[in-house]
Amino acid sequence: MKGAAFDVVVIGAGAAGLMCAIEAGKRGRRVLVVDHAKAAGEKIRISGGGRCNFTNLNAAPKNFLSDNPHFCISALSRYQPKDFIALVERHGIAWHEKTLGQLFCDGSARQIVDMLLAEMQAVGAELRLQTAVVSVAKTDEGFAVETSGGTIMCRSLVVASGGLSIPKMGATGLGHDIARQFGLPIVATRPGLVPLTLAPDLLERLQPLAGVSVDASVKSGKTRFDEAMLFTHRGLSGPAILQISSYWREGGTIEIAMAPGADLCETLRRARTERGRQSLGTLLAEHLPRRLALLVAESHGADRRMADFSDKALHAVDAAVNHWEVRPAGPEGYRTAEVTLGGVDTRALDSKTMEAKAVPGLHFIGEVVDVTGWLGGYNFQWAWASGWCAGQAV
Ligand code: FDA
After folding, report:
1. What are the residue boundaries of the RsdA/BaiN/AoA(So)-like Rossmann fold-like domain, all occurrences included (predicted)?
2. This prediction's pTM
3. Is residue 190 within 6 Å of ligand 1 at its C-beta?
C-alpha cells in the first residue's frame, strides 16, 4: 500500500503481541512490533516465579471471566495448549506439569521469550524497543501510529498493550484509550489475581499468623477454589485467595474452610469422649498449622479440656475453622495484581479475528481485552490464542 511502511503494526511486545507478529509474519506480512520497554516479554520473563507457567492442559472457557463468556470459545478452540506445547518442544525446551494441569519450564522463563523472538526473527518481523506509542489515527488506507521515534504507517493495527497490572513494569492504559478513541465500549477494569487486605482490627488479631500457609477451600458465591492460602502482614494471599479475588466484589464476603478435608465437628465430638483430657489447641494442631491452631483455640479457651466443651461450643470451633466468613477490606491493587479484569468489551470485537467490528483493520488481543483467566497458565493461553487468531487475519 502507498505510504505504509508495514502491513501490520503491533503495539506491545508481550505474549499476545509476539504471537500475533509470528503468525502474521508466517503469512508473508511485513510486521513491526513496537514497545516502550527496554526488553520484549518482560512479564513472561518474571512469570511463574521465573519458570513461566506457559499454559494449562485443562484450559477451557469456564476458566475465564468476561462480561461475554462465550467470546473466548472460538479462539481457545482454534489455538490450544497442545499447539503451544508443540512449539515449545520444537525449540527443545524442557517442561513439566507442576499441579492442576499447570505447565512450567524446567529451566527458565527466559527460554520462552527467546523462543518467541527467534520465531519472530525467522519470519522477518521487526521489533522496535524503547519506542513509546503516543497516539494513533485512522488514515484512508489504514492507520498512522505516532511514536517517540516518529510516525509509522500501517494497514492493520493490533493493540496488544496489556492491562494495568504492575505499572512499574510498563503497564499503561494506552489500549483502553485507543478503544475509547474509536468509540469501543470498555468493561470497567479492576485488579484480578491479587492479594486481599483486611481491616486493621482483624489484621492485628491475625498478625501472629503472617507467613503461615494452609490448604484451604475458599468460596465467593457459588465459586470455590481448593488451594493453598497464606496469611500475610497485609491480609490474605496464596493461590486460593488470588483465584477468589477475581470473583470477589468490594464489600462482599468470602467463606474459608481451613481444614476442608475433615468433618471437624464429628472429630471434635469424638475427641470429647475419647480424649477428654486433651486441650483444644493440641487437638486442632492435628488438622491445622500449629500457630493457626493455637490462635483459633485461644478465642475458644486454649487450655480448656475437650471434655468441658458443649455441643454449641464445638460448633463454634468448627465454624471458626471451616466456615470462617471474612469481609476483606479491599484488593491490594494493580501494584501486585497479576492481571486486570475488564477491558475492551468483547461485544465490539469479532471472536474469530479479534477485529473491532466498527473499525476494519483494528484488532485487540491479550489482556487489554475483557477476557481474564484463572491463575495457572490460563492467561498466557488466552494471550497465545487471541494473538494467533489476529495473526491469521491481519
Ligand atoms: P503484556 O503486559 O505481557 O504486554 C504488553 C506490552 O505492551 C508490554 O511489553 C508493555 O511494555 C507494552 N506497552 C504498554 N503500553 C505501551 C505504550 N504506551 N507504548 C508502547 N508499548 C506499551 N500468566 C500465566 O498464564 N502464567 C503465569 O505464570 C503468569 N505469571 C505472572 C506473574 C506476574 C508477576 C504477573 C504480573 C503476571 C503473570 N501472568 C501469568 C499474567 C500474564 O503475564 C499476562 O496475562 C500476559 O502477560 C498478558 O499478555 P499481553 O501480551 O496481553 O500483555
Report:
1. 7-392
2. 0.97
3. no
Measure 87 CA to ligand 1 centroid, in angstroms: 20
Q: Which CATH class is domain 4-188+340-393?
A: alpha beta
CB 356 within 8 A of CB 81: no
Q: Is the CB of 344 under 6 A from ligand 1?
A: no
135-138, long-range: CB < 8 A, 24+ apart: 136/11, 136/178, 136/181, 138/182, 138/359
Q: What is the largest CA-CA distance in the chain?
A: 89
- Reported as a single tens digit per residue, the pLDDT across 112-152 is 999 999 999 999 999 999 999 999 999 999 999 999 999 99
CATH topology of domain 195-332: Elongation Factor Tu (Ef-tu); domain 3 (2.40.30)
For the chain, which residues make up each domain, given as ranges? 4-188+340-393, 195-332
Q: Which amino acid is at 71?
A: F
Mutate-to-test residue for ligand 1 from 47, 52, 96, 344, highest number of ligand atoms within 8 A of CB: 47
Q: What is the rounded CA–CA span in Å between residue 182 and residue 177?
A: 9
- Over its C-alpha atoms, the chain yields an Rg (Å, rounded) of 25
From the list 378, 341, 343, the residue with the least C-alpha distance to 364 is: 343
What atom of ligand 1 comes closest to residue 15's alpha carbon?
51
Kindly give the distance from the C-alpha atom of residue 323 to the centroid of ligand 1, in angstroms, as a whole number: 36
Closest Cα partner for 14 from 57, 43, 38? 43
